[in-house]
Write a structure and sequence with these properties.
The strands form two sheets. This protein has a four-stranded mixed sheet. The protein has a four-stranded mixed sheet with strand order 5-8-7-6, with helices on one face. It is globular, with a radius of gyration of 20 Å. The longest helix has 13 residues, at about 10-20. The two termini are about 30 Å apart. The chain contains five helices and eight strands. By secondary structure, it is α/β, with parallel strands linked by helices. A hairpin with a 5-residue loop joins strand 3 and strand 4 (about 85-90).
Amino acid sequence: MTASPTLPSRERAAQRRLRQARIDVVQYFHNAFRVADMERTRHFYEDIIGVPLVGCEVVEVDPIDGSESHYIHTFFELADGSHLAFFQVHNDKYPYYERKHSYMDHCACTVRDEVTFWETLDRVKAENIPFVLVEHPTCLSAYITEPDGGWFEIARPADICIDALEDDNPHEVLANWLAEHGDKQRVVAWGESE
């Protein structure tokens, strides 16, 4: 993904604002994940990453089938008003499957500034939590091992990040890639070994 050499950043930003004004989906409400230990999850996201717990809902009736439930659903607020959300179920009705490290499957959030980025990593290091730093062309990222074994990415974007993420013709890029590689992904059923 590269910014168009023909459009200055200000013009691209103006086009982006016009495009975004026509999009009816305005932001994440939440992105939800199952966890094995809600307190461990709360400690990681609130105390280490710095995302405050703002909501906690005990659901007593399963909204899918109406049966007795008692699972907990927590919400951690990001600066834009969207949320990271987590579920912990009290029984084996919905089995918990451990997550594995995957560079491809993770949640990523930007942080306010460089100071916040490095202060967050200092807290991660103090807790001996494994992480990997990756210098992307558009940002510096830290892939941090979250309590359930997956990765949570914090990113410190470069000034050109948004311009560099956008293509002049993303549908063409996607179609070309799918034509060459789209049928090569092996699908593994849930619970099968890879």
